[in-house]
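Hi,

I'm pasting everything inline rather than attaching a file, because the server keeps stripping attachments. The sequence lines come first, and each chain or strand is labelled.
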Amino acid sequence: MTVADKIRTIAADARAASYAMARLSSAEKNALLVDMAGALEERTSHLLAENARDLEAAEKKGISTAMLDRLMLNGERIGSMADGLREVAALPDPVGEVTRMWKRPNGLMVGKMRIPLGVIGIIYEARPNVTADAAALCLKAGNSVILRGGSEAINSNVAISGILRDVMEKAGIPAGALSVIPFVDRQGVLEMLKQDEFIDLIIPRGGESLIRFVVEHSKIPVIKHYKGVCHVFVDATADFDKAENIIINSKTQRPGVCNALETLLIHREAAERFVPRIFSVLSGLGVEIRGDEAFRRFAPEAKTATEEDWYEEFLDLVLAVRVVDGLDEAIEHINRYGSLHTESIVTSDYGNAQRFIREVNSGVVLVNASTRFSDGNQLGLGAEIGISTTKLHSYGPMGLEDLTTTKFIVYGEGQVRE
Amino acid sequence: MTVADKIRTIAADARAASYAMARLSSAEKNALLVDMAGALEERTSHLLAENARDLEAAEKKGISTAMLDRLMLNGERIGSMADGLREVAALPDPVGEVTRMWKRPNGLMVGKMRIPLGVIGIIYEARPNVTADAAALCLKAGNSVILRGGSEAINSNVAISGILRDVMEKAGIPAGALSVIPFVDRQGVLEMLKQDEFIDLIIPRGGESLIRFVVEHSKIPVIKHYKGVCHVFVDATADFDKAENIIINSKTQRPGVCNALETLLIHREAAERFVPRIFSVLSGLGVEIRGDEAFRRFAPEAKTATEEDWYEEFLDLVLAVRVVDGLDEAIEHINRYGSLHTESIVTSDYGNAQRFIREVNSGVVLVNASTRFSDGNQLGLGAEIGISTTKLHSYGPMGLEDLTTTKFIVYGEGQVRE
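And the predicted assembly:
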């Protein structure tokens, strides 16, 4: 069997299994996830042995220590993976929810009911725990899932999915509902992206180059975000203590992630008082500041920002700062340079807070809060399968509901159309 | 300027105008639509003159009478077009609706707010009234719209959009928010489908070949349906009078549309009593019946159905009929041959009604009602911009809400992440 044939078979099996997945009750799905958690813990030694093969190969390839750490499993990490499955089991089941129902003049009762999307493909990089996490969310939402992890983790991923599939088979659920693509080169990804007959949605998780590769080659709809150029706007009336806390938290709590602050906008009227203060505190925390001319008037030691800096996702302790004339210019800047990810205003002005909420159309728009809250768990979705900066289907952090769609249901009593 | 440059400019202008569109209040949008309606009526003679040019060219090309009729405008049709705009003005504005809001343990108030998608491209065929209808729905939902109608209607479409743009300019709204692609060949469509930087969604409306062409070439997400192979399943316990009414209405009220019945499934236990009756009444109405062997046992004069008939969208007074062993086989048939459009069960059995609603995952699933209700207006959406048989973003008939997305909004008081 060629790679193409094998992947087509995996995809067709996933489609066939998706009908059985869609019919499972919440109780059946939850029991499945809890049993999967137990099985992962029971088979720790097998998982560690398979993971050791990946680690050995990675070391031979001279992979970085950081990468090796992301690849490594141990008892504690396997326990966390199992607990993750139990947490997904505990989440409410979105499938079957009737989100609205109304009555038509002819007596028809019309509603919208949540149903699974069908078959979801996840393409990701090094961490093997994503295999269990992503599978759990897709299955909980009644979908089949096809996973294609990083080539470095192939033995770990096949071992994890093998354990999960064993549990499914014991429960009488077709194991085709959960597959790992067992090919480590790009051809495996390319063949997967051609299966639009069987796969409903692709979610790529990883660096911008992986995501661009997926978008470029996919015949299947892709939900993705390329980058997070997140903004905080400090309004003239901002409470400077709050502003300082929010900026420090947004920039430094975890600078390497997509919801970290990248560009700070400061109202001209606040500049004289706020610029020296924020420059001093951020510099003290090791943040490199690149300011525009107006910023540097009050913080001459700051580096000079270039036009490119406004587009940049630094993912590091670097911050671009610009002084703006007011809310209009702040919104213009965000529309022009932003990535539709996350923006926050710090203000005491009611009208400006409401205008910012209404007029800034990024996936997450906050008032007086850290950009770091732009996360499925932090926002209360219970989990996060990814984040979308494109507006179709899902926008912003994605939870279980984003792995479903709604159909129309109609209860009649013999009605026909006039 | 080349065609490519011109279309890129149209798309870029639409994107730029979309920010202004998104900020308009409901009152401003409604006033705009009402003014547009008045302007179309006032300029009837201009519209008729431009339409006459299209009609003349079409006649020279030897176009069919049916096509000429679809192309033709007259005072009454212009009046209907204007009334259509007034009806859209009267619909509730989806933009700004907060669909849900909840409080997090740290006090953050998190909600989801409806916002416009941005820029929507509509690609359609002959009828010039679609130009006004589709534009109105896109604008009402706060979007910019780019229209590419059939080449036969180009003068009518340019005239209609010109009148609507004049009204926008008078109201101080950038006219780039509404454009007609003025090129009549396929290159115009192809260039439009490349503008993924500026256009968020393409909705093609027309025959299957147009839609396949658009899907094949689009870099922009497309929401579409290829065909409607709609089913009615007559259960063993069906009320035969209701079943007969529903089948007649579904099949014959308007056989050429996508929500017309194409395949009838009959429970084996109902076959002996129901088959002769439904065969006789449908034959009397001029419907050609193609039955399987079990059907023909009780209606030997029926033609024989082939395997291809189960996939067929006849769009005519032709019906495929099959006798099935029960609900399971009916659902299997629908999953295998269906088009995810619309399915109805006729039954008196509570359990089977609920199972059909739960387990059949087409865009519209009905109990004891005609498939002809699968329509945005009939279901109560107030309007219909299209219909989707793919599950991402929208599924089933699409109304104003489907031209929006939701962003997260967060009201804080200085919260930062632990």
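Chain A has two domains: 3-93+118-224, 230-375.

If the labels don't parse on your end, tell me and I'll reformat.
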